[in-house]
Structures are given as structure tokens and as C-alpha cells.
Amino acid sequence: MTFKTPDLCDQFEAELGRTVRVVAPMFQRYGGRAAFAGRIVTLKLFEDNSLVREVLGEPGQGKVLVVDGGGSLRCALVGDQLAILAKKNGWEGIVVYGCIRDSGDINQIDIGVRALNTHPQKSIKKGVGDRDIAVTFGGVTFNPDAHLYADEDGIVVSSQPLV
After folding, report:
1. CA–CA separation, 154 vs 23, rounded Å?
2. 33 and 1 in contact (C-beta within 8 Å)?
3. For residue 14, is pLDDT > 70?
4. Most buried residue among 28, 96, 140, 158 by CB atoms closer than 10 A?
């Protein structure tokens, strides 16, 4: 799948009446894949990545995991082992409204990752959080089964597939 987010904005904002939503430019780019796209799966949690591991252990072909970590900068929600698991199970990418760790290793894995920043400390493991609910950050609401497109220029979300 080839796309450029600026072209998607130009083409579909007018055609679809602004149903293309642009996420605020707040994320750093990690992972070996500069561009990725897929159907959204959501998690809402805070400083506990137990559900992240659970979801990334499932088949993820054509999907992007969007993790609303509350914007916490106090621990990492994704590390190299979870990125390896995601790649193994076919996930296209992960967007974390929070931090990741092992960024050097993650940059060598063929998966797209966006996060606010890095943090060396791991999260707690209590299994607390919600799955497949609408989450909002960066000025955009991410609904399960909507479509996300990310590249070097940013992240856009649409309720319907664009490419």
C-alpha cells in the first residue's frame, strides 16, 4: 500500500467533507517502517501494558494498535519484545500516547511505531484497561475499526478506507 498523508488530506478533505482527521504533530517516529496503515484497534490504559501484550499476541494483519496511555511520561508501554511480538503476528504499526523503550532495537524491526517519547522504565502489570472503545488525543477521536495512515509527515484517521 503506497500513500502520502498530504495527498490523502488534499484528495479526501474536499471529497468527504473533512472526514479525514489529522492528529496533532506530537509523535516521534520509531520502528523500521516509515509509513504504515491499517484498521484501528484501541486500548485505553494508564502505566500498565498488560493488555498491550495480550492484543499484540493476536493476529494483526491489516491492523494498527492505538494505545491511549494517558500521555504518561513516567514509564514505557511498548518495548522491543512487544514490537517483535507485533511483527511476528503481522501488525502494521503501533501508536502510543505515552512512551516506548528499547528504541534502538525497535528501529531495527519492520514495524511502524509512533510514541510521545522514550523512557527506560517498564510499566506495571495489573491487567487494567479497556479495549475497543473510542479514545481521544492529539485532537482526534480514534474509533475501533476506523482507518489510520501514518508516514513521515504525520498521522491521519478516516472512518472509511482511503487507499
Report:
1. 7
2. no
3. no
4. 96
Domain contains 143: yes
Handedness of CA 75, 73, 70, 135 (dihedral sign): negative
pTM for this model (two decimals): 0.96
Flag whether 163 is in a domain: no
Q: Which one, of 103, 110, 113, 121, lies nearest residue 48 by Cα?
A: 121
For 40, residues 6+ apart whose C-beta sits below 8 A from its C-beta are: 63, 64, 66, 142, 143, 144, 145, 146, 147, 148, 157
What is the span of the domain harbouring residue 16?
Answer: 5-158
CA distances from residue 135 to 40, 45, 48, 67, 97 in whole angstroms, order as listed: 11, 10, 16, 8, 10
Looking at the structure of the chain, the number of domains it has is: 1
pLDDT per residue over 21-55, tens digit each? 999 999 999 999 999 999 999 999 999 999 999 99
Domain contains 30: yes
Residue 97 and residue 41: Cα distance in Å, rounded?
14
CA atoms within 13 A on the CB side of 76: 19
Looking at residue 121, its pLDDT comes to: 98
Residue 136 lies in a domain: yes
Element holding 134 (H helix, E strand): none
pLDDT at residue 150 greater than cutoff 90: yes
